[in-house]
Amino acid sequence: MSGNCNIYLLIFILGLGVSSGLEISKSGCKETKGCVSFPYDCKGSSDCNYLVTYVAGKDSVYFEMSAKDDWVSIGFNQDKAGMVGTDAIICSRPASGSSILIGHYYLSSKNTPTITTPTPTGLFNTSGEFNGGIIRCSFTRNKVPSSNMKYDLSNKQYLVYARGEVASGILQYHSWKSSSSNKVDVLATTGAESRKRALLLTHGALMLIAWVGFATVGMATARYMRTFWGDSKIMSLLVWFQIHRSCMVIVVLSTIISTILVFVYVGGWSEIGAHAYIGIAVLVLAVLQPMIAVFRPHPGDDKRYIFNMVHQTIAFIASVLGIVNCFLGVEALTETHRSGFVVMIIFVVVNFLLTVAFEVYMWKDKSKPPPPHPNDDQGMQVEEEERSNGREIVRKVLYVCWILLAFVCCVVLLVLIGRKNSR
User: Is 52 strand, coil or helix?
Assistant: First the structure.
């Protein structure tokens, strides 16, 4: 009886090993294996929307893939990062039963691909499962292509990623796809993800520079520094306006460029939730501002107040959404969350305190008594001038503090992101 129990226990343990053997982890990425995942900061097949890992052997490369979908694929293309001409391995959920279909496909067009029959000898050691809406599979592919395979993995290739649904056992058009931005050496361990990761990091850096840095300075200049330089001009325009416009032009351009970069990184629409939707809203509002400014009435026009109200409202909403999205972006890029969050909280708190200080200053400046009449005592004029100079010094100090806040927070956040992503 005890012998039978031991046998059953051994079968149970082996069963656990088989059932959990296809759980794909990112542990060891960039060290012992190459990895590509979307989103980047997911940990394994249980939370990655798409994941592929690869380890090179002497004559072959071992792949593991997963996706939150019915089929998942990895493709190789020597000429371009596109679907047509791609040599692909696709793992798919069959119409019925639990057996996963893993096969070689050559994509000669954008139509539904046809599996290679019989399976090429260069594709072997296949296994897979579909559980909880996640498909997982593993396989080994020879470096040198066999019959019906096109590309030699000893050479650098564009990697093409895709996933989609299965209906009645038939592969449906991909619901998501992406590709490497450059050719990748799958015999190395750091190729695809580290290079394409640069697009995401540049996106995050530009948005931080735009909304933590230049937007802060530009909006503060427009609201609180209009009269500081008097009638002084730069290139025929008032100093405050030149500073404000220059800052906001940088904000708009940075937002547009960073949005393009993240679309290239993801390969289409992102699936990371609120961050993507807020980002599009910020982009729309940022682009809308200069378009509205083109039609603004001249100063002194009866309807100028309408432009001012709309312009300031859009600026406030865009700034708030931009900072919120910086919080979400810093959370994703710093991965440990805490350090980046602390800097963002400090930025928001100090920014609020400086705003309150400036508002109090403006209120007091407006409520000050009118300047003395020229026939009044000369001492009173001197005293008023000293008070005015004191107020201007306060305004200058607050403005410099605002510039330093934006600059220091940007630098610290960029350093934190760089350190977290250089590991």
Answer: strand
Strand ranges in 39-100 using DSSP code E only, listed in sequence order = 50-56, 60-67, 71-77, 86-92
Q: Are 258 and 210 in contact (CB under 8 A)?
A: yes
Cβ neighbours for 159, distance < 8 A, ≥ 6 positions apart: 36, 52, 74, 75, 76, 179, 180, 184, 186, 192
Predicted confidence at residue 226, as pLDDT, reads: 86
CA-atom Rg of the chain in angstroms: 30
Question: Do 30 and 7 contact (CB within 8 A), yes or no?
Answer: no
Pairing of strands 134-142, 176-179: unpaired
First-last CA distance in the chain: 54
Mean pLDDT of the chain: 82
CA distance 345 to 341: 6
- How far is the C-alpha of 347 from the C-alpha of 408, rounded, in Å? 9
State yes or no: pLDDT of 385 exceeds 60. no
pTM over 0.90: no
Helix (H, G, I), strand (E, B) or coil at 286: helix
Task: Please answer whether residues 72 and 65 qualify as being in contact, where contact means their C-beta atoms are separated by less than 8 angstroms.
Answer: yes
Neighbouring residues of 2: CB distance < 8 A, sequence distance ≥ 6: none
Q: How far apart are CA 204 and CA 199, in angstroms?
A: 9
How many angstroms separate the CA atoms of 93 and 130, rounded? 7
